[in-house]
Amino acid sequence: MLKRILYIEDDPVTAMLFKMIIRKNEFSETVDVCEDGMKALEYFENLKVTKEEPPQVLFLDLNMPVLTGWEFLEIFKTKFAEDFPNLKILVVSSSVDPTDLQLANKNPMVMSFLSKPIDKIKLNSLKFSPEFKQFFDEERD
What share of the chain is helix, strand, coil (3-state, %, to 5)? Predict the structure, then answer.
């Protein structure tokens, strides 16, 4: 199981359902939520100061007020990528715009593009992926 993940999501209902599915499927011990990209940048700034354990995975919504997911990624890349080199970033979106998928696939910081909503099938797929397998192998033994 992962220790900590972060979900950047502006819709409180979607965030609440996300937390429920993560807990129910024993994907992560802790789920932090930031309601927009600016708050997420503050979150990472705070982690640099406090030296708390960072999230292992970031689930990033694209269409948000204040900063879009793409704008967040650009700022994160220049300000925080060096400080959090092991962070795995997953774009999570209900966008049907093929450009979003292309941008996600081209972005070296983005591991994958997942369609909303996140469900048990998508989480299990992640659990068995090479990037996440190590965190869940003990559970299968």
Answer: 45, 20, 35
Query: Full-prediction pTM beyond 0.90?
Result: yes
If 0-12 CB within 10 Å is exposed, 13-18 middle and 19+ buried, where does residue 60 land? buried
Q: How many whole angstroms separate alpha carbon 93 and alpha carbon 115? A: 5
- Whole-number Å distance between alpha carbons of 122 and 104: 17
- Per-residue pLDDT for 139 more than 80? no
Distance CA 138, CA 133 (A): 9
Tokens of 18: 């996300």
Domain count along the chain = 1
Domain extent at residue 64 = 2-140
